[in-house]
Amino acid sequence: MNDFIDVYLPEEFVLGPKLRKTIKISDLASHQSGLPDIDFGQLIADNPQQPTSVLTMETLTTLVNNANVLEDYGTYRYSTLGYTLLGQILEQTYSKTYDEVLRKRILTPLQLSDTFTKEFNISHRTAAYNPEGGEQEFFIWNIVASAGLIKSNVSDMVLYLKAILNEGNSIYDASVLSEQVVYSKDGRQLGLGLGITKDEGNVLYLKSGDTMGQSSVLCYDRSKNWGIIILFNQRNSGLRQQLLNDIYETVLKIKL
């Protein structure tokens, strides 16, 4: 995770002289690379139903190859581009698509039969709603798949959570690695894609997410062997956070 990204990126990406041998894999995973990001706000304004449909490899290479300086390297700034580049690095390393890597490494070993990636035309799929309550299409993620491709349900996520918390499988090993602190500043701590919260002796690892039609949380306390999963079929980060806080306080009272 401390390797520089230069040698892992597809050949289309050519880092400028001031960027070479600077950005590490862990920087991408903890949102501190300093690279310019995809303007998701503009994409949503242009096409709120399928904002990612216009993104191509040229979009990514233009952003990366034209960057001459990392203005806020080492500072947290959420980056869709960072996670997209991680997906490109996985594809380059394993000579497989991101979808294939997910299936081989996670979905098939854990038998996650209700977790979907590119193909999700199923009869029991929920509807999705934007913050205003209007119906929202599921994103076709295109080249930015690694920033939010997966669609699942609570049942499968419980299986995934159990794999995180119980030794003897590769998901457990990877999760322990991802919990190492690689960013700590101004009261915020991050692992590889995980927020880390410490409260009265409890350590909570958390990943939340919002798209135009969904909000979600997966968090857990490894030392006490419990976790929380919240899935919404509407983008509502405020309600998501309030539910998480309420459930967390309830669990703490039970555990104490």
Please render the helix and strand layout as text.
Blueprint: H1 25-29, H2 40-46, H3 57-65, H4 80-94, H5 98-107, H6 154-165, H7 170-178, E1 183-185, E2 188-190, E3 195-199, E4 202-210, E5 215-221, E6 226-232, H8 237-255
Antiparallel strand pairs: 1-2, 2-3, 3-4, 4-5, 5-6
List keywords for this structure.
single chain; Methane Monooxygenase Hydroxylase, Chain G, domain 1; Beta-lactamase; 2 domains; 6-stranded antiparallel beta sheet; 6 strands; globular
Please characterize this protein's 3D structure:
Helix 6 packs across helix 7 (170-178). The radius of gyration is 18 Å and the shape is globular. The model has no long low-confidence stretch (mean pLDDT 93). It folds into two domains: 1-96, Methane Monooxygenase Hydroxylase, Chain G, domain 1 (Up-down Bundle), CATH 1.20.58; 109-256, DD-peptidase/beta-lactamase superfamily (Beta-lactamase, 3-Layer(aba) Sandwich), CATH 3.40.710. A hairpin with a 4-residue loop joins strand 5 (215-221) and strand 6 (226-232). By secondary structure, it is of the alpha+beta class. It has eight helices and six strands. Helix content is 34%, strand content 13%. The chain has helices at 25-29, 40-46, 57-65, 80-94, 98-107, 154-165, 170-178, 237-255; strands at residues 183-185, 188-190, 195-199, 202-210, 215-221, 226-232. Strands 1-2-3-4-5-6 form a six-stranded antiparallel β-sheet, with helices on both faces. 28% of the residues are buried.
Instruction: Give the percentage of residues in beta strands.
Output: 5-15%
Low-confidence stretches: none
**Which strands sit side by side, in order, in the main sheet?**
1-2-3-4-5-6
Number of distinct beta strands: 6
CATH topology of the largest domain: Beta-lactamase
- CATH fourth-tier homologous superfamily of the largest domain: DD-peptidase/beta-lactamase superfamily
Return Rg in Å.
Answer: 18 Å
